[in-house]
Each structure stands twice: as structure tokens, then as C-alpha cells.
Amino acid sequence: MEQKVNYLSDLEFNLDTWKRELKFHRDEMDTFQEKLDEVAARKNLDKQALIKLESFQNKILRERKVISDLLHKIKQKRLTVKTADINEPLDGRLYREQIPLRDEMRTYIRLHYDLKEAMMDFFTKWLD
Fold first, then answer.
1. What is the pLDDT of residue 43?
2. pLDDT digits over 34-58, tens only?
3. In this structure, which long-range contacts are made by residues 119-127, counting pairs with CB atoms below 8 Å and at least 24 apart in sequence?
4. Alpha-carbon gap, residue 113 to 117, rounded angstroms
């Protein structure tokens, strides 16, 4: 039984870690939106800069949606872990059920950092 409790605790830890990371990224997107607003307020933007700025704004909106969807999935998985039968045999089922979410998180994180780097390059060019 102690092994089962540790197993469930480990699964819950993963979910909590992903949740904290997503919330941090959501806050980070707010900061990036503020920076985009600063760039947009400049009068010397050329057409290419405006196109790039709008593209980043759209990507921020999409990323916020992805974050929301992932947080919802984490909430559902957390409920599954919380309501797991402590007497159920330890067969790895809950871990296996968490693998698709783990893979989604990996993909999201990779894409997030690609976007973040592109935006930081843009800011370097357009902000003093």
C-alpha cells in the first residue's frame, strides 16, 4: 500500500509541476504582450514589422488557448489520480494514461521556447 501511495504521489507531483510551468508561461505571455504593445506604439514601424507584430499577437492568443486546454487536461488527470482506488493493483495503468499528456507537454514546451526566442529577437530589433 505504501508503494501505491508513493506511486500516486509521484504522478501528482508531475501534474503539479506541469501546472506551475504552464501558469508561469501564461504570465510570461502577458509580459510579451506588453512588449508587443510597446513596439506597436512606435511610429517608425515598417510593413514587415507590423506583419510580424500581428503574427506574434496571434501566436500569443493561440498559446493562451493551448495553455488553457493543457491546464484542463491536467485537472482531469489530477482528479483521476486523486480518486484512484488505493486497493487497486499497482500495474502502471495510471502512468501509461499520463504519457499522452506528457508528450503534449514536451511538444508545447518546445514550441513555447521557439516562440519565446523569436519574440526576443524581434524585441531586440525594435526596442531600445
1. 81
2. 999 999 998 888 999 999 999 999 9
3. 119/32, 119/35, 119/36, 119/56, 122/39, 122/52, 122/53, 122/56, 123/35, 123/39, 126/39, 126/42, 126/45, 126/49, 127/35, 127/38, 127/39
4. 6
At residue 95 the predicted structure's pLDDT band, cuts being 50, 70 and 90, is confident
Q: Say if residue 89's pLDDT is above 80.
A: no
* Number of domains, the chain: 1
In this structure, the number of other CB atoms found within 10 A of the CB of residue 15 comes to 23
pTM summary value: 0.89
Nearest alpha carbon to residue 98 among 14, 5, 27: 14
Distances (CA, A) of 21 to 10, 30, 126: 17, 14, 28
Place of cell 507531483: 13
Domain that holds residue 107: 2-126
Determine the straight-line distance between the first and last CA of the chain, rounded to whole angstroms. 59
| Cell of residue 60, nine digits | 500569443
Angle CA 79–81–87, to nearest 5: 130
